[in-house]
């Protein structure tokens, strides 16, 4: 026979609170509203009146007993006698700061079928953090649960500006497949709020807010979907929180709404089901007005800045109207980031990274100030952000999603002249570099591949031996029109990843130029047995997953450059007099070795000068250690 005896211990026992926990500084005593549990009372490092679903019990009081980074282990003051054995209850929460009035947490405990909640029961023992925190990590980013200080939405301190893609007045709204005439989503009248005005036939198909008004609190982006936590502004809401998962393509917002917070399977197409309540699908389109105005001016790059640029420190990135793609960084786990333009003041641009990074378990947004100035026919730029040691780069890190222009553009002026980076669009003015080692052959067999069709090009070849900074392709006119019969590519920059090399090259070939917007192409080089596969794409390597190739070549019959040059040599094999002594050979050999040594030294000096200019911004290691709190939060 199963029986449960509930024993309530009045007051908070000091035996549980051992003082080993330190909550985030913004998680102060008082009432906080959880998207999962409703009102919670915080006192010291205890959570009071935490709702539970255990038979005969409505709430538990939890004390924090252990901590690892942002992960906290709580033990309930209450316990139960199950089959004559004392059973204690534990809760694992990963709590992260967002701002002074909003935090988020992840439940780190798996669901227990007997407790019917995300609580870890343990008979006759005290659980360790590793036992109770049994949910697999990393947590799905969209499953965060918002925690808001009571009263901070009403006084206006908690809401944030809604994400840029929503800042418009949409005049066509469909909910759960039902198109609603004369229905509007207005995110411009108040850019911290989403206001739905629903008209017939949507009187019976509404959002989870009866009044249709929400305040934006926090959002994260994962993959193609942005997950926005919303506060329902109804006077007596059925559900205080919603998770609005959306994607913006052109002028169309495709979204889902899930009550409370998103599930692990929620995205902008598939709504979540929580507490048996199935989420809604929402499509908003046909904007009559857009209000993406950040700071004093809307941020767009000048027309002349758009395109693919080569920098004087040997990197390549691309700029469109509002985004800089492929900016090189030294952040652990990243080689490049993409930056959106948020604000411009004369020549200075405040940019925010689309990607985020984790530092000590905190989700950190990254910001960059670029001072871009015209220089003759090109541009140069200075980085206007100081070096940040935790990010290992000249970027501003913040757990806040919005920071001021002055916080980002914090590097003192005037800038050091030698920290300028030249931007060059005319590749002919950039000195070529040696092509990748894997390409330095004479390939005497060349085929053009189109799907399953392979066209062998007789009397065609690719030569990287005559000049190792250039690829020369000779191809007969039976192999298509993508290339002229003779074309040269100049190697500009490359990166190697496992067995694949991504190589930027420029060309003045008229046939190729007709297929690209500028004179730069990206070649994906893949070594195969007996040869090389070269796939040529339009302009930018980061677009390979979304771009069809211009040309697909298979190269074989490779001869290394030394053999090629030896075969081509016409000079007699013996150029020394018959009576040359050993001393003569020794002197000649010594001169050759000396020349090689000098060449190596010169190459090292040149390569050091070409290293990422941000290294010059890196400060000396301070005498005293920095804290993460030094980051401008």
Throw out a few tags for this protein.
single chain; 633 residues; mainly beta; Porin; 4 domains; 8-stranded antiparallel β-barrel; 8-stranded antiparallel beta barrel; 40 strands; 8% helix; disordered N terminus
Note the total helix count: 5
Number of domains: 4
**Which class do the helix and strand fractions yield?**
mainly beta
| Low-pLDDT residue intervals, each spanning 5 or more residues | 1-19, 565-583, 607-633
Principal-axis shape equals elongated
Question: The biggest beta sheet, please?
Answer: 8 strands, antiparallel, barrel
Mean pLDDT: 79
Radius of gyration: 32 Å
Q: Please report the total strand number as a whole number.
A: 40
Strand content: 35-45%
Termini separation comes to 56 Å
Q: Percent range for helical residues?
A: under 10%
Strand order of the largest sheet: 2-3-4-5-6-8-9-11
Q: Can you put this structure into words, describing what you see?
A:
It contains 5 helices and 40 strands. The chain has 633 residues and is mainly beta. It has 4 domains: 4-144, no CATH class; 164-290, Porin; 303-425, no CATH class; 437-567, Beta Barrel (Porin), CATH 2.40.160. Strand 26 (336-345) and strand 27 form a beta hairpin. The longest helix has 28 residues, at 582-609. It is elongated. The two termini are 56 Å apart.
């Amino acid at each position: 026979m199963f029986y449960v005896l509930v024993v309530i211990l009045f007051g908070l026992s000091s035996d549980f609170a051992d003082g080993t926990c330190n909550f985030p500084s913004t998680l102060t005593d008082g009432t906080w509203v959880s998207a999962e549990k409703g009102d919670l009372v915080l006192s010291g490092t205890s959570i009071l009146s935490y709702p539970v679903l255990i038979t005969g019990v409505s709430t538990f009081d939890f004390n924090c007993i252990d901590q690892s980074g942002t992960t906290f282990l709580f033990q309930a003051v209450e316990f139960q006698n199950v089959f004559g054995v004392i059973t204690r209850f534990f809760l694992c929460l990963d709590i992260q700061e967002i701002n002074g009035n909003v935090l988020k947490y992840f439940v780190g405990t798996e669901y227990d079928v007997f407790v019917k909640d995300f609580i870890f029961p343990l008979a006759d023992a005290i659980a360790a953090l590793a036992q109770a925190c049994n949910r697999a990590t990393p947590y799905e980013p969209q499953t965060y649960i918002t925690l808001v200080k009571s009263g901070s939405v009403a006084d206006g301190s908690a809401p944030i500006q809604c994400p840029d893609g929503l800042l418009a007045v949409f005049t066509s709204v469909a909910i759960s497949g039902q198109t609603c005439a004369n229905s509007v989503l207005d995110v411009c009248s108040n850019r911290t709020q989403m206001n739905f005005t629903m008209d017939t036939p949507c009187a019976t198909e509404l959002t989870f807010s009866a009044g249709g008004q929400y305040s934006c609190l926090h959002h994260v982006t994962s993959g193609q979907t942005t997950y926005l936590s919303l506060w329902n502004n109804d006077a007596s809401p059925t559900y205080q929180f919603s998770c609005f998962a959306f994607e913006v393509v052109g002028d169309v917002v495709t979204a889902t709404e899930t009550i409370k917070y998103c599930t692990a399977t929620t995205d902008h197409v598939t709504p979540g089901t929580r507490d048996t309540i199935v989420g809604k699908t929402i499509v908003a389109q046909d904007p009559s007005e857009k209000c993406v105005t950040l700071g004093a001016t809307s941020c767009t790059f000048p027309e002349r800045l758009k395109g693919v640029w080569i920098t004087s420190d040997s990197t390549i990135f691309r700029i469109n109207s509002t985004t800089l793609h492929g900016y090189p960084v030294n952040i652990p786990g990243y080689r490049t980031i993409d930056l959106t333009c948020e604000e411009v003041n004369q020549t200075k641009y405040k940019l925010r990274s689309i990607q985020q990074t984790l530092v000590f378990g905190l989700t950190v947004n990254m910001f960059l100030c670029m001072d871009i100035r015209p220089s003759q026919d090109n541009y140069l730029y200075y980085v206007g952000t100081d070096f940040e040691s935790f990010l290992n780069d000249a970027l501003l890190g913040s757990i806040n999603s919005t920071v001021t222009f002055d916080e980002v553009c914090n590097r003192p002026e005037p800038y050091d002249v030698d920290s300028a980076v030249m931007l060059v669009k005319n590749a002919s003015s950039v000195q070529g570099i040696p092509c990748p080692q894997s390409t330095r052959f004479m390939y005497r067999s060349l085929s053009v591949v189109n799907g399953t069709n392979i066209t062998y090009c007789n009397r065609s070849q690719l030569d990287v031996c005559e000049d190792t900074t250039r690829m020369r392709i000779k191809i007969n006119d039976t192999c298509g029109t993508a290339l002229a019969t003779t074309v040269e590519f100049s190697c500009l920059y490359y990166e190697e990843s496992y067995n694949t090399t991504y190589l930027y090259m420029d060309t003045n070939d008229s046939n190729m130029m007709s297929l690209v917007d500028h004179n730069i192409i990206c070649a994906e080089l893949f070594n195969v047995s007996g040869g090389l596969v070269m796939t040529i794409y339009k302009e930018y390597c980061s677009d390979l997953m979304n771009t069809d190739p211009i040309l697909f070549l298979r190269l074989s019959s490779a001869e290394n450059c030394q053999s090629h040059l030896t075969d081509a040599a016409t000079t007699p094999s013996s150029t020394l007099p018959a009576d040359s002594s050993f001393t003569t050979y020794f002197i000649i050999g010594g001169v050759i070795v000396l020349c090689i040594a000098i060449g190596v030294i010169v190459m090292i000096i040149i390569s050091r000068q070409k290293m990422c200019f941000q290294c010059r911004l890196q400060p000396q290691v301070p005498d005293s250690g920095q804290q993460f709190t030094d980051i401008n939060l």
